Each structure stands twice: as structure tokens, then as C-alpha cells.
Amino acid sequence: MIRILHIAAKDLKEEFRTKQMLNSMVLFSLLVIVVFSITFAPILGSSQDVAMVAPGVLWIAFIFAGSIGLSRSFVAELENGCLEGLKLCPIGRSSIYTGKMMANMVLMLLVEIITVPLFAIMFNFSITGLFWLGIIIFLGTVGFVCVGTLLSALTVNTRTREILLPVLLLPLVLPALIPAVMATGSILMGASYGDISQELRLLLVYDVVFFLVAQLVFEYVIQD
């Protein structure tokens, strides 16, 4: 566990020193929220209309911003010639995956913490079910990062990784994205836990399944 934390801390320390990727993710996420809110403002009348559109916009912002960060997850090691050294470390390769995933998760959560307040302002939402909204975002993000970290390792050696990663990622995260958007919309309309319990269970199952699958196949993904 300590070695996993060391890998995550290394990535986060490097990112917080420059903040280059984090700033890009935050800026892109906020830009998506602003552009979509301005675009849909003239055609959205009632709060119900807004609740049908706004959750999709929020998750589009998360997914696109996250794709930017995930595409660079293993690039630093590749460009510095450290990827082979990382593979030769006396730790299980699943630990490398978990450490990278944890670092990506922290960055995504930071982006989301900044994005949600602007989202509430731009779409004129008073978010009362903040706790359950946080749970939905967390579970959806875990699934997204689990799959994204694995695919980032898979595509790191390709020249078109920035394009290839979203192409592979979006279809795989769709089973988590749909219940996440539905549950987010329900919460924005004032729903309780009972109304979103099925979506939460789907997200939890998705997270567990893909985390375990990624643990099993990561060794083969980054092998020579």
C-alpha cells in the first residue's frame, strides 16, 4: 500500500509543481459549462427543461476534461525514458496501476469541486441534495478513471494517443455515464435516495467490475 501511495504522490507532486495539466483540465471544464449554458439559455424555459439538459452538460465537462488528464497519465515516464524503469520496479504492476489511478482520481475530484459551483450558478440551480450528488459524482468518476487509466497505458506508445484514448474510452464508460446522468438529473429535481438507489447500485457494480478487470489485465497492457 505504501508503494502505491508513493507512485500516486510522485505524480501529484510533479503535477502540482507545474499545474499545467490541472489548469488545462479546469479551464476546459469551465469553458464547456459556460458555452453550453449560454447556448441552451434561450430555449430552456422551466426548471424541468433545465434538469433534463444540465446533467448531461455537467458530465460532458467531466469526461472531456478528464480525457485531457488521462491522455498524459503515462507520458511523463515515456518522455523521460522512465517507463521501462517503472516496469522494473520490485512491485506488482497492479500496484503501478492503482497508484496512477489514485493520482488521476485526485486530479479529477479537484476539477469537479471547482466545476460544480459554476455549474450551479450558470444553470441557476440550488443544489439541496449535495451529499447524494457528491456520491454520484464520486462513483461515476471512479469508473471513468478505472477505465481511463488502463486505456492510457494501452495507448501511451501510439502517436495518436490524444485521439485514440477518447475513441476507446467513451464507449466503455457509457454504461456508467448513463446512470450517472440520470441520477444527477433526479437529484437536481429534488429526488431522494430511494429514487436513485438503482443508479447508485449500477455505478457501484461498474466500478468494482472494471477495477478488478483492470487489475488483472494491466500487467499485459504494459508488457514489452
From TrEMBL:
GO terms for cellular component: plasma membrane. InterPro entries: Cyt_c_biogenesis_CcmB (IPR003544), Cyt_c_CcmB_bac (IPR026031). It comes from Methanococcoides seepicolus. Keywords: Cell inner membrane, Cell membrane, Cytochrome c-type biogenesis, Membrane, Transmembrane, Transmembrane helix, Transport. The lineage of its organism: Archaea, Methanobacteriati, Methanobacteriota, Stenosarchaea group, Methanomicrobia. One of its GO terms (biological process) is cytochrome complex assembly. Required for the export of heme to the periplasm for the biogenesis of c-type cytochromes. It holds the Pfam family CcmB. This is Heme exporter protein B. Belongs to the CcmB/CycW/HelB family. The chain crosses the membrane at residues 21-44, 50-70, 102-123, 129-151, 163-191, 203-222. It is a multi-pass membrane protein. Signal peptide: none annotated. It is found in: Cell inner membrane. One of its GO terms (molecular function) is heme transmembrane transporter activity.
